Amino acid sequence: MRLDIPEHKILVYELAHPIAWGEMDALGHVNNTVYFRYMEQARVSWITAINGGLNSGDEGPVIANTFCNFYRPLVFPGALTIKLYVANPGRTSIDTFVSIERADDPGVVYAAGGATLVWVSLKDGRPAPLPDAIRKLSGAAPALPGGDVPPALPR
Q1: 109, 71 contact by CB (below 8 A)
Q2: Between these two residues, 145 and 13, which has the higher pLDDT value?
Q3: Residues ≥6 apart with Cβ < 8 Å to 75
Q4: Is the pLDDT of residue 145 over 70?
Q5: 41 by DSSP, 3-state: which?
Q6: Is the peptide bond before 6 cis (omega within 30 degrees of 0)?
Q7: How far is CA 131 from each of CA 26, 60, 97, 136, rounded to the nearest angstrom?
């Protein structure tokens, strides 16, 4: 099954990330489980950058679902450009999408995936409203043109 990333999304974060030799598997490419770590790191870095931390002590994000489409194998050595997008906001959840490119092959997507983030109370596990910093990005806007700086990138 292949899940497509919607065209209607907002670019909110870019992360430069190295490919580590230890991420390779016996077939000589980055193991498929590592792509989920790359996506996780982009989400965590973004939330930390705009929210001042991953959680407030009382509330934080959990993943309701996740997926990844693998298009081309990644191999060591190399560096990645991981782009994080958001779409389909709700009161307590927001969809995140990620594209993974090699820094030395810009514009070529090696993998793409996503996850639905649900904000929850860490005390009782019940859904909680998204933080203001995330809710402010919840507008229905198309993806930014190629060279524009995303509005949520730290400056």
Answers
A1: yes
A2: 13
A3: 19, 24, 28, 29, 30
A4: no
A5: helix
A6: no
A7: 42, 9, 19, 9
Query: pTM for this one?
Result: 0.85
Dihedral sign for Cα 36, 37, 42, 45, please.
positive
State the Cα–Cα distance between residues 155 and 142, nearest whole angstrom: 22
Q: How confident is the model at residue 144 (pLDDT cuts 50, 70, 90)?
A: very low
d(CA 28, CA 30): 7
Per-residue DSSP letter, 23: G
Residues 6 or more apart whose CB falls under 8 angstroms from that of 124 comprise none
pLDDT tens, residue by residue, 48-72: 998 888 877 899 999 999 999 999 9
Per-chain mean pLDDT for the chain: 87
In this prediction, residues 103-110 reach a mean pLDDT of: 97
Residue-wise burial string across 30-67, b where 16 or more C-beta atoms lie within 10 A, e elsewhere: beeebbbebbeebbebbbebbbeeeeeeebbbeeeebb
DSSP state of 144: P
Cβ 112 vs Cβ 72: under 8 Å? no
